[in-house]
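PT: before anyone asks, these are the final sequences, not the draft ones from last week. 590 residues across everything. Please model them as a single complex and drop the result in this thread when it's through.
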Amino acid sequence: MENIIQLRSVNKWFGEFHVLKDINFSVSEKEKVVICGPSGSGKSTLIRCINRLEEHQKGSIIVDGMTLDENTKNISAIRSEVGMVFQQFNLFPHLSILENCTLAQIWVKKKTKNESEKLAMDYLRKVQIDDQALKFPGQLSGGQQQRAAIARALCMEPKIMLFDEPTSALDPEMIKEVLDVMVDLAKGGMTMCVVTHEMGFAKEVADRVVFMDEGNIVEEKKTSDFFENPENERTKLFLSQIL
Amino acid sequence: MRSLNFIKTRFFSSPIDAFLTLSISYLIYLTIPPFINWVLIDATFYGETKKDCIDGGACWVFIKIWFTKLLYGLYPSEEIWRINFAFAILIISIVIYKYLNQKLKKYLFLFLVIPFPIFSLVLFSGGVFGLSPVDTREWGGLFLTLVISIFAIIFCFPIGILLAMGRRSNLPVIKYFSIGFIEFWRGVPLITVLFMAGVMFPLLLPSGTNLDKLVRVIIAITLFEAAYMAEVVRGGLQAVGRGQYDASKAIGMGYWKSHIFIILPQALKLVIPGIANTFIALFKDTPLVFVVGLLEILGMVNLAKTNPYWLGMATEGYVFVAFVYWIFCFAMSRYSLSIEKKLKITN
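LR: through. Structure below.
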């Protein structure tokens, strides 16, 4: 299979701090990869590099055949193919849920208002909050907001979806409704990179699990192997704490 | 009994409270009744000259006789309809605005901000379409106050926003230009700026070129207030979370689209009180244009009180001007509050 995301010896520093150390990482089309690891290990930074919310300083990142560098045009092309879901939802509080979903369709993809509203309602129905479409983000529960954020990203019809700890800011009883949406999405064939500590989700949908620590990819295995035969001591320790 | 109890707990709950209540009541007794006497009861409303004012109170005859001058300055009286016409359109637009639907509101707003000011300027200055020209030296009174402040407000707001964005830019040239601009204009007193614009600036221009004094003054006030506006808006920009920038980038919105649709609507909403503050301050700064010989409403009062037939009328004039300024500033303050409330409901 062809790699839709390809990172070659990527390095990144925040000032003096070396966040990503010579990362080699690839994702093939329709593959689901879960990235886990202790906080500060660089996993969020890694996926934020894939849509260039963070710039890497060394190495190369190729997403869907396009190289990420200082070329601005390239970046907006890549961002419209890569959807992202954030830990803090980051919905636009001054717009209704529907407007959150249509804004970029209208202004980035140049669609008409009717077209974009129709697509938005389709995705809102898919994540089961179509009845909340006219409300504002502040009127929704955390789980509903995160599902709206997923719908907003899907409305751009991306080829790849990135999830940055999508359930970490949620109350426990709301985690499941968000994970259910993500499982559906995975079963629909979306290419997904998910930073999460939800090992149940990893076992259910991930093809591969990547474990990161201190800016390195420590272990990278097929899901079943990862949970049954972890080799690295650090991975074993992490798994024993989290499972 | 209940009201007695209310008075006791609110005003006399301790010896200090009782003392404060009594002394403030005494102060009110000392100042308010004489003021009301002067303004209303002993005041003279009817008459034609200073000699009609014999009751010892305020001589409102002075305001009555000078009223047209206070409103329109030295604008030729047979052309005053132009001013009335333009302001009538403005007032009608504002009144019908809230009864329109979203789309018409947008059009009306755009009309008021772009074609209407140009149309008004042409109408006021004349010289085309058979309108006789009126030199800006003849503009004055409340009319001039409003022309200066409305134009300065319309221009300083977008310039301020651009400067605020510029100051946060990653591009060093834009960033340092914005910082330099803001710090320069904030660092000099307005009166100096106006003096430079009115008196010094023409000396620096090549001879033969001529920029109207009023235009120079409006530009000066606009740039001066834009610097303040920039810092107010920057406060709002800083308060919008980084996640909003991330999210708008992630759905493919570039710098301008992110700012127009996502960042600025949130940032400006947060700083409405600061924006209103700047506008009110701008409005109250307009009397300073007297340093270049322009006479807005306060300037006209200063002119009128030196008229030999009306000497000694300064107090009436100042009270009247204070009242007019207060009306406008209070209206702006209430308007900003109502916008704040409206935006709070939708969020």
